[in-house]
Automatic annotation (TrEMBL):
<feature type="transmembrane region" description="Helical">
    <location>
        <begin position="114"/>
        <end position="132"/>
    </location>
</feature>
<dbReference type="InterPro" id="IPR000522">
    <property type="entry name" value="ABC_transptr_permease_BtuC"/>
</dbReference>
<keyword id="KW-0813">Transport</keyword>
<feature type="transmembrane region" description="Helical">
    <location>
        <begin position="58"/>
        <end position="79"/>
    </location>
</feature>
<keyword id="KW-1133">Transmembrane helix</keyword>
<comment type="similarity">
    <text>Belongs to the binding-protein-dependent transport system permease family. FecCD subfamily.</text>
</comment>
<feature type="transmembrane region" description="Helical">
    <location>
        <begin position="297"/>
        <end position="316"/>
    </location>
</feature>
<feature type="transmembrane region" description="Helical">
    <location>
        <begin position="182"/>
        <end position="201"/>
    </location>
</feature>
<feature type="transmembrane region" description="Helical">
    <location>
        <begin position="86"/>
        <end position="108"/>
    </location>
</feature>
<keyword id="KW-0472">Membrane</keyword>
<keyword id="KW-0812">Transmembrane</keyword>
<dbReference type="GO" id="GO:0033214">
    <property type="term" value="P:siderophore-iron import into cell"/>
</dbReference>
<feature type="transmembrane region" description="Helical">
    <location>
        <begin position="267"/>
        <end position="285"/>
    </location>
</feature>
<dbReference type="Pfam" id="PF01032">
    <property type="entry name" value="FecCD"/>
</dbReference>
<keyword id="KW-1003">Cell membrane</keyword>
<feature type="transmembrane region" description="Helical">
    <location>
        <begin position="139"/>
        <end position="162"/>
    </location>
</feature>
<dbReference type="InterPro" id="IPR037294">
    <property type="entry name" value="ABC_BtuC-like"/>
</dbReference>
């Protein structure tokens, strides 16, 4: 498929996925009621549901999906590893440890979010100091992230063991990714716009970096500043997601591969298409999580894996 055609296709599918997220939920609303509510033509229950509940959640889902897909594409380019995803460097692990500790002490939701942000930033700083320190390189950065992730996993298991039974369910929902409390998408949307702009500005340099560090240097690319910029951009994108919705897995791994399997390689096209595809995918997954067994809701991270695994296997089979 040509890249302009894919961009046009995604620009059509994205509003449809957002509309589906607003139209479907545990409360049945007709398409006419939804359109009237969006247009602000009448006040009532439908308008309250659309504007106060569904629209903020749909916006959060799209922003988080776009951020995860963008972070995954950037880290795969940075580490030159197709298995890299936004959580490979331990960012979600550090955030999870801090958030679960806050839950264990019974802190309010706002404090839990602040703890998650602090944990993510601490993990970013620790991985940066150890991986990019004296003599640091991409292999050392990756190994540092993997080792720290293992340590954070042990601490998470310890916190779950110590937690009272009444708190374990909320902790597990957070670990699996949950958008039920995501009602303030402004931060995630702002980070998405800024991160995409910064990454797209360096798209040509990312293409050259894929040829190898020595080749990139010989072609005039400032490799180390580029690596640092991409690392912190991907880290900020991931931190914004874990603060907004917890650790939603698999989106950052599958979506960049999905876009590449459609024939897109250059980052100038790959990055915006990955954002649109990731946002649409997570929006649809969250809509299904809200409606599959309504009024009960499923953790959206469970749906992303259940939907993503067979999709990626199918695409890989068709490609080979």
């Amino acid at each position: 498929m040509s890249r302009p055609f894919l961009l046009t296709l995604f620009l059509i599918l994205t509003p449809l996925s957002l509309l589906a997220g607003v139209a479907f939920g545990s409360v049945d609303l007709s398409l006419g009621e939804v359109m009237c509510a969006l247009a602000g033509k009448e006040a009532g229950l439908a308008t309250d549901i659309v504007w106060q509940l569904r629209l903020p959640r749909v916006a959060s889902a799209f922003a988080c999906g776009g951020l995860l897909a963008l972070a995954g594409a950037l880290l795969q380019a940075l580490l030159r590893n197709p298995l890299a995803d936004p959580y490979v460097l331990g960012i979600s692990g550090g955030s999870a440890v801090a958030a679960l500790a806050a839950m264990l002490f019974g802190l309010a939701a706002a404090a839990v979010n602040l703890a998650a942000l602090g944990g993510a930033l601490a993990a970013v700083g620790l991985v940066f100091a150890l991986g990019f320190g004296r003599g640091g390189n991409m292999v050392r950065l990756l190994l540092t992230g993997v080792v720290l992730s293992a340590g954070f996993s042990a601490l998470i298991s310890l916190l779950l063991t110590l937690a009272p039974g009444a708190q374990v369910r909320g902790m597990l929902f957070w670990l699996m990714g949950d958008l039920s409390q995501a009602q303030a998408p402004g931060l995630a949307l702002g980070v998405l716009i800024a991160a995409l702009a910064l990454a797209w500005w360096q798209a040509n340099s990312l293409d050259i970096l894929g040829l190898g560090e020595l080749k990139a240097r010989s072609l005039g690319v400032a490799v180390r500043p580029l690596q640092l910029g991409i690392y912190f951009t991907a880290s900020a994108a991931t931190a914004a997601v874990v603060v907004e919705a917890g650790a939603i897995g698999f989106v950052g791994l599958i979506v960049p591969h999905f876009v590449r399997l459609l024939g897109v390689s250059g980052h100038r096209w790959l990055l915006p298409l990955a954002v649109l595809a990731g946002g649409s995918f997570l929006t649809l997954a969250d809509t299904l999580a809200r409606t599959a067994i309504a009024p009960q809701q499923l953790p959206v991270g469970v749906l992303t894996a259940l939907l993503g695994v067979p999709l990626l296997l199918f695409l890989l089979t068709r490609r080979t």
